[in-house]
Amino acid sequence: MAERMLKFTTVARSTPEKRDAQARDRDFHEIYADFIDAKAAEQSSRCSQCGVPFCQTHCPLHNNIPDWLRLTAAGRLEEAYQLSQATNSMPEICGRICPQDRLCEGNCVIEQSGHGTVTIGSVEKYLTDKAWEEGWVQPLTPGADRGQSVGIIGAGPAGLSAAELLREQGYSVTVYDRHDRPGGLLIYGIPGFKLEKDVVQRRTRRLEDGGVEFRLNFEVGRDASLDDLRGKHDAILLATGVYQARDLTVPGAGSQGVVQGLDYLIASNRKGLGDAVEAFDSGVLDADGKDVVVIGGGDTAMDCVRTAVRQGATSVTCLYRRDRANMPGSMREVAHAEEEGVVFDWLAAPRAVLGEAEAADGVRAHRMRLGPPDSSGRSSPEPMEDSDYDLPARLVITALGFEPEDLPTLFGAPHLKVGRAGTVQLADRRAKRTSLPGVYAAGDIVRGASLVVWAIRDGRDAAAAIHADLLARVSPALVAAE
């Protein structure tokens, strides 16, 4: 099979065809076409099959990327899919939304040598979409009933990944979530042009068909306390994510027309799913016909600016206090947004929201310069004197990051230990155990706002830890046997 590989010197890097900006900026369909079989094989053949696969080591899931690229190049697609999904509960989702430019592809050896990275994410998406089409994705088959149950709080990627593995081990699994659909930010936070919702829904249907129970519109602290759920289940996994948006603290921030980025995205996604959304229908969370300013430079900000374009905004400006090189969002997303007409105002920060309390009509901003590095290692922004200027804005969207909610108070669990930032403290990080016996935690609620791929990794690790502990509770001798 070696003759089919190492073609990076003769075959140029090629991504799936991207829809023209003018053709895509009014709908929420994904912007990339699918690879055809021949193209996927050709691009996979560019892999150098290096002895130390940096793509694999820089993937949080340590996916066996070189081997499934080799199988794809050989046309052994079902085997390639089986290998790709062996370490990843949602490969087609990671293929769509992972920042490959910062992870696997950004560390590809041939990228470092100037030949252009292998299109790992596109091949991963292609393989799993092909698997769904061909029926290679098998139903979730529960293991022999163990007579033990696990409750999972949160139906996002960490919770869903854990639910799948625990159900396969024979546990009764119930997933509790505050929303009316499972998926967490995959269904309500990420726009359809990055991740169409049927892709998420077929994953959650597979879990439901396999016996995972979903208790939706369920709020811990309102419908049951954490202790109530601990009494019902043999183990509890906290996989709530972090949803508390950081506030904008400038004069006028409370004016009508200043909205949180997540509220804005949830409303847009709900409309796309066919829901009635009063705040959208009234115009509060609709950018149509408005000058829009989005404040922030992360992935949520990128989702907001590109959503505003599709809703028909008159203008969309992204205000970010650092420069392009120091922004946390994906450079690919920035490029997509610029193609779609978004203006990036670098080294700029808000001083005030203009207008009246009932209606914002602009943002007063000032220029920044970069000073010494801060605790994150990035240059710290400092305001420049006498640099104020005004931007028109009838809709101001804040995307300043997320913090954990106060789970001990919210869940009626005062003995649940959290750190200064509010994230859940683990008594044993490897085993995902919290300060409460039988309660585990995984994903953003432990590590802070992070990537979906890390949430999947944490959920899988938590499932393995829960299984080991529950097995030991029944019979320590079985732990060694399994």
UniProtKB/TrEMBL annotation:
Record's keyword annotation contains Iron: yes
Record region (Disordered): 1-23, 364-388
Enzyme class: oxidoreductase
Keywords: 4Fe-4S, Iron, Iron-sulfur, Metal-binding, Oxidoreductase
FAD/NAD(P)-binding domain span: 150-459
InterPro entries: DPD_II (IPR028261), FAD/NAD-bd_sf (IPR036188), FAD/NAD-binding_dom (IPR023753), GltD-like (IPR006006), Helical_ferredxn (IPR009051)
The protein's name: Glutamate synthase (NADPH/NADH) small chain
Organism field: Caulobacter ginsengisoli
